Structures are given as structure tokens and as C-alpha cells.
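Researcher: Here's a chain I'd like modeled. Treat it as a single chain, no partners, no ligands.
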Amino acid sequence: MSVKAEYINAFIKASTEVLNNFVPDKFSVGRPSIRSSPFPTKEIVIILGITGDIKGQAVFSLDISMAKTIASGMMMGMPVEEIDEMAKSALSELGNMIMGNSATLLFNEGTKIDITPPSLVKGTAIEISTAGMETICVPLVSTAGDIEFDIGIKG
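Model: Modeled as a single isolated chain. C-alpha cells:
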């Protein structure tokens, strides 16, 4: 099964709208590509499951610098020196907001999804395996840095 464009478009629209609310450097969408499993990530990874009419997962991958910028923006500009529990909470909430908005957009098109609570992973040399899922990588690009948004849908 190939991932329907309207699914991907809803995720892209929600992610850029939410990010642009919190980061002064506006995000645009880079060229999407198909990911082979397993694939490498950056140092901060936010993973949310997708259930309902479509099943899969959303993976946001960003470097420490971008994570600090976003966490700061979500905390009304409070400086973020390290990815502590407060910053992790803010980043996890970012995943919730993007996926919640995606769920609303999809619902308006007749597709019902639910999302799982986010899991945040921090480290180096992290690889994600997505057995049985076609995964589309959508680069979210800004002058402050990039985020890799991987959407895996199970066939």
C-alpha cells in the first residue's frame, strides 16, 4: 500500500502551522523521500503512534540546538540551556499538538485517527526500525535548523 497524499498533506500542514507558532524562523517543507528501515535519527526523537482508520507512527527527529530553540519558543522565550525534564515535556507536547491538529484535519476529510502519548528518546546513533511500514521522510526546513518528520503507515 502506498501512503495516500492526503494523509501526508494533513501531517505536513499541521506540523508547519504548529512549528511556525513557536519558532520565529518560519518552516517550509523540503523534498519528501521514502525511508528504508532501519534509518538513522538526530539526537532528539519524538515518537507517536497512530491508530484508527490508518495505523502507523510519526517520528520527529531533531538536533539538540533545534530542540532547545523549539522548547524555548514553547516556554514563551525562556532560555533553554539543556534538554532537561521541562524541555522534554515541551517537546513531547509539540508532538501532541502536531498530531492532534493532524487528527482534526484528517477527521474533516473523513479519516478518523487517534494518537498515542509521545515517547521522547535522547541519544546518539539512534536507529528507527519500521517493519511493515512505508515511511515517508518530510524535511521541515528553517534558517534555525531542520526537523526530519517521518510518517510510517502500515499497509
